[in-house]
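Section 5.1 Outputs to date
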Amino acid sequence: MQARLIQSQEIAPEVRHFLLEAEGIERLEYTPGQFVSLSAEREGKTITRAYSLASAPGGDNRFELCLNRVEQGRLSPLLFDMRPGDAIEMRPPLGQFVLRKPPRESIFIATGTGIAPFRAMLEAHLSKSSPPITLLFGVRYESHLLYRMEFEEMAGRFPQFRFWPTLSRPEESWKGRAGHVQAHLAEAVDDRRDLDVYLCGLKQMVDDVRGLLKGMGFDRKQIFYEKYD
């Protein structure tokens, strides 16, 4: 199967949002939180990388990705150089990082482009009748708060949704939360121990938060995660 680029745009320094379509099918079936694998030949070798889908299924063959350019990466520079109409090999969506059924009150914790699966989940599941969700999103700089306006709009429309952006390297003008997401975990959890917690981001953050949650008394069955280096 091939994915053809429809359009891409920079949404933060060295971060792009991609709109693609899966060729040869009318509908791309997947569950929010899953990923697709893209492949290309580089220097005589097939390079494959998995990327979380950043959009909910739309009933057609289109999907969205949010990718960070890794300067020494084997595949991301090629993807950033793609132009509308270019195609790349893809494998159908896979992955177990999906919401529990039925969804329960949850905390989503993301760093960087780890926000992608949560954007898909929120697009698909957030409604007036959905359980409460807190999104704790950590980045270094304010310019990297990906999809910020979308999440702020969601928080304004749905009172049970809390959006907590936090910056580890804030400028003096920043009035919001500062530090790493780990510093705000206790506030998000409060005295609750009946929540589900979903984590996506760099390995160190995921491992740190898992350790903190277990120390608070959370069962491992309440913690869902996907991590990358």
